[in-house]
Each structure stands twice: as C-alpha cells, then as structure tokens.
Model the fold of this input.
Amino acid sequence: MTTRAGFVALIGEPNAGKSTLMNRMVGAKVSIVTHKVQTTRARIRGVAMEGEAQIVFVDTPGLFQPRRRLDRAMVKAAWGGAADADLIVLLVEAHRGLTDGGARILEGLADLPRGRKVALAINKIDRVEAQALLALSQRLNEAYPFLRTFMISAERGYGVDDLRRWLADELPESPWLYPEDQLADLPMRMIAAEMTREKLTLRLHQELPYQLTVETESWQERDDGSARVDQVIYVARDGHKGILLGKSGETIKAVSKASRAELEEFLGRKVHLFLQVKVRPNWQDEAERYTEMGLDFRDGNA
Done:
C-alpha cells in the first residue's frame, strides 16, 4: 500500500474562509470561525484522510497590512506556514475579487522558492454570476501561474471534495504523520482556549475585537471521567473587564455556558469550565502570551 502525507497551507486575506474550509475538509471544528476578521492567530493544523493520503492543513492567520506587534507576528506566521508547506492553496472571495491585499499576497507568492505548488480556490461562488467568476479566474491566473483553479463554497461544501482529492494526489509518498483518528495536533488546552475566544468574539461584536486573549491555566482530569478546565481571559483595560462581565455577570455566564457546551460536544464527556478575567494592560507585548498563541514574539518586531 502506497501512502502519502504532507502539509497544505491555506492562505488568503482575513475572512476569506480558510477556517471554514479546513473544518469542512477535516470534518470537525478545529479552527474558530466567526464573522470577524483576523480571528485565527496561531497556525492551527487539522488532519484529514483522503484514501491512503493524510492531508495536514495549516490554517494560517489572514494576510493583511500589519500595524501592531501582534499583527506583524501573525503575518510572519502565515508566510512561515506557506513557506514550510508541501502545497499552498490561496483562497480568494468571489464577490471581493482581486483587492489590493490580494495583489500583495500574489507578490508574496512570487517571492517564495521556485517550484512551489500553489492552487487557487475561489470561495463563496454562490454569491456571484458565472461570467464574473470566469473573469476573476482568468485575471488571477494571468497574475500568477497556479497549478489548478477550483471553484468552491467552503460553507456549503461545493467543490470541496474535488479540491481534497487533488491535494491528496499531489502530496509526496510518505508514511502518515499522525494517528489515523487524530483531527488536530494542537494541545487540547489551546483548542479549548480558542473555543472560548470564539464565543467572546461572537458575543461582544465590535466592543472588544482584538483586545483580549484566552489561556487555559489548568486542566484536571477527574475520577468520574469529567474534566475541570480553568481559563483566564486577559483584557487590556479595566473598562474592558466590565464589558466582558456584563450586567450581573450575564455576559461571562453566557460565554461560559456556550463554550462549555461546545467543549463537551467535542470531547464527548462532561466538562466543568471556570472563567476568570484579569487586566493586563500590556499583554500584547508579553512574550509569554505569544507562546500560548503559538506565535513567535520576535516576529512582532518592526
């Protein structure tokens, strides 16, 4: 039996649908998906099986024009994920077309080592007419020599199976890199923190988009098969703490309930989740916080 295995980097602008596509490919929720941009901070790996091939997806942070230390570290992580991968898939939103940000990504692809295998996936195809799709595909392929172009809807699943089969065929012959039933190589502590951060992002809307981070402080397995999970939510200002707690603590209670329910569904057992909010004005400049997010603090230097 000939087996194949390798890494596939999903790159694109923020909110292009990378997390949704990876979750669809893997068949489980291993990367947070929200309506907000820049929600994926770490390079989250999801593992999918296709025939005798094991595809390890690297869901990189969205590529954008960085302004802060955290932004710079995220963009460096995204390009690092692309440079290290066996295959790269560039996701472009059909209804947005080739933006200035997309043009910068194409320039970045041109700077990668020659011979790098890059495919184009035009996502959210249900939002535009066929004629516009064909015109966009032609324009993008004139700008960069993609190996293949796929028309997909990551949310609805259109074209995703074709893309996964093609990726499996293009991977190098190799033993599998992970156990067959493993979905992700992230520690469960980080997956749990990402789940809580997603619930906070959805609940708080525009109030605290990037001013918070979540860390799983402790994880205790109990004799009855359940787990106690203690998490800390770091915010930058005292005023943020009040927003996060909500009137009579209703916001933090709702977030805790939603996060616990998703964590229990993911693990298939009972979870006791305890959230604590702490104010750390300079958390975005602390190396320890970056390590927790799977980012390199040094990459945030200007």
Notes: The CA atoms of residues 219 and 229 lie 5 Å apart. Confidence is low (pLDDT under 50) at residues 32-42, 62-66. Strands lie at 4-12, 44-50, 53-59, 87-93, 117-123, 149-151, 212-221, 227-235, 271-279. The domain at 4-170 is CATH 3.40.50.300 (Rossmann fold).
